[in-house]
Amino acid sequence: MAAFDPNGVGVKGTLFGLPYDSENADIIVIPMPWDATVSYNSGTIDGPAAILEASSQIDYEIPGITAPWKTKVAMLEIPGMWHTKGIQLRMKAQAYIDWLEKGSPEEEKEDMLARRDEVNKQCAQLMTYVRQESEYWQNKGKKTILLGGDHSTPLGHMQAITEKHGEIGILQIDAHADLRKAYEGFTYSHASIMHNVMDKCAISRLVQVGVRDYCEEEFERIEASGLKMKTFFDQHLKEDQFGGITWQEQCDEIIEVLPEKVYLSLDIDGLRPEFCPSTGTPVPGGMDTDQLFYLLKKLKGSGKEVVGADLVEVAPGHSEWDANVGARVLWRIVQLLN
């Protein structure tokens, strides 16, 4: 540490080029390269590797934070087994999705349902792996961040968090509600993460911000949830801003409805598409990075305890832009947990 120069060239090989490892770090980033059930563009399987590569290029300073480079954070080795398995299952899942989109021809039904069932079985095993990995590091006194991969990947992480902390609230920043039940027949679909979390974890409240692409089933569940869910739809946020309500006032309202213990689930597509053009399912609208960072700053200063987080759906695409943005978003999440 004495030889580390925070003003020097970023050295590749560790997250943000920092001189920490899993044993001496306080915050552990768990990479999960997986996008087997993605329903539009693939590529988020390579998000963790792309973010790691881009992370050494950032400068550390953040206004209002003293020496953020002293934050002890490290990323685990990317599990090659799950990357390989994810690629294999993605091909099977895509064949099944193509069959659905062709109208589900009866002569292919037996084979396609077998493919679907295999994907569901392997996804369940992945959730168990993520939960056990998260529990291991949390039991060592570490805070953990799950780095996807698609938005299906954090379920086991959230299970571990709630087993440790009891009931928590979730702050979900996302273009999608992700409340579909077994979307396209996949129990652990990226479009079902919040449905699964609400069913399998001790969640006192789900607060969604930026949602702008959702179906009738999801809207009806939100409407019927009472105080269990609060959704700040992107359209409503923008209309209120057009009428004179400030983002500061809206952030205060968002944070006010969160409980004292908060988990952040951040899908990069909650941002405007120019910040994440290669993400799995980009949607017009959303917030910019300055708005996101301001919301995280307000949450940090609120006194609420942020017990864990995930960053998902970053896909490298054909340039370094998505990973560049993703690395900077991850750096702000790290400071939120510090």
Q: Any overview of this molecule?
A:
With 338 residues, this protein is α/β, with parallel strands linked by helices. It is built from ten helices and eight strands. An eight-stranded parallel sheet has the order 2-1-3-8-7-4-5-6, with helices on both faces. Strand 4, helix 5 and strand 5 form a beta-alpha-beta unit. The model has no long low-confidence stretch (mean pLDDT 94).
What's the arrangement of secondary structure elements?
Elements: E1 27-32, H1 47-55, E2 73-75, H2 80-101, H3 109-138, E3 143-148, H4 155-165, E4 168-173, H5 193-200, E5 203-211, H6 216-224, E6 229-233, H7 234-242, H8 247-256, E7 261-267, H9 289-301, E8 305-312, H10 321-337
Parallel strand pairs: 1-2, 1-3, 3-8, 4-5, 4-7, 5-6, 7-8
Keywords:
338 residues, alpha/beta, Arginase, Chain A, eight-stranded parallel sheet, 8 strands, globular
Q: Could you say which structural class the secondary elements and strand pairing correspond to? A: alpha/beta
**Looking at the chains present, what oligomeric state does this protein adopt?**
single chain
N-to-C SSE series?
Answer: EHEHHEHEHEHEHHEHEH
**Helix content, binned percent:** 40-55%
Uncertain parts: none
- DSSP strand count: 8
Look up the CATH topology. Arginase, Chain A
* Highest CATH level, the class: Alpha Beta
Q: What is the count of distinct domains?
A: 1
Question: CATH superfamily, called what?
Answer: Ureohydrolase domain
Mean pLDDT, nearest integer?
Answer: 94
